[in-house]
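pinging the channel bc i need a second pair of eyes. not urgent but kinda urgent?? the chain im working w is below, pasted from the shared doc
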Amino acid sequence: MYYCQERHLYLVIWVDDIFLFFPTIALKQAKELWDDGLRKELDLGEWQDIDDCLACIVTRDRPNRIVRLSQEPAARKLLLRTGMQDASDKETPMVANTKLTKKDCPSAEQAAVMSEEQRWYRSVIASFIYFVSWTRPDMAYAVSKLCKFMHNPGQVHIVALRRLLRYLKATANYGLVYNYGTANTSGVQEGVYGYYDASHADCPDTLKSTTAYVFFIGLCPISWNTKLHTVITTSTNHSEYCAAAKAAREAKYLEKIMVEIGMGELVQPINLYSDSKGSIAMTYNPVQRSASKHVDLADHYAREQQERGTITITYVNTKDMIADALTKALGSADFLRHRNTLVGRIDL
């Protein structure tokens, strides 16, 4: 990314694609850069609004200041390829409280018989990784868990993947909605803020915890992640504390890039929300206790960033913990409540 703060121009290059972002007040400067600069050096035509980027569809409602990102065509194509275009709909990506395990992986003899199904599984999961990385944080937890068995999926895993396809079929027209209209952002926290959460020892094979975070600007999600922690955590507070460290590292990255491009007011500081009072106390109180003396140095990163003023951490009730949808398979009511914050319908 190249930028000029004085002229409010931001040029992003992705492989062989070029994107030029600018506010309306910088239209003249943007045209000068495009016509008198870039087109003289590169084989470029007239610029046009971005409407398709790597099969991610961009639509705009300029009067209401809304931008929508959708991968519906790619989703419909995947459903057609897998023969699931007429399948019954599902409200959630996974059955509530599902625990997938290696015990359901087939033996070598069984895997040889299932080779075609396993190949199908890997291909479909690869497509879902693409969706989750771009516009579908609501499916991140399910995809993360199903990815663990790409090397040797069994029938239980294939059934779970088919359910995910049914959920995709029901929500193919969902995506990210960046709504910056005054009526929709009044009363909303300004700047960048995030939620982090953990599900303690939820992996039945390793007893490791799933940690997750999601960051927003206004009502718009801009970054999310869900992943098994690298080590076993010994308590719920410990796993939440580790999740805080991961979220703090992402917050530091967002702070650095925002400050560099002249938008530092959005990250002064970044507020993180947690539903664990115990882990918050560990972050704000550096007293060494027997219950926390085993915590790795890397997991104290959130405490350091809090002391430096990069982040603050605030308690939020579990029912309002949006990152909960990225750490466990929720029931319909809880999942739908959080999904409405993460993604929205694009064809409204």
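so The chain has a mean pLDDT of 91. and Residues 1-48 form one domain. — does that match what u expected or am i reading it wrong
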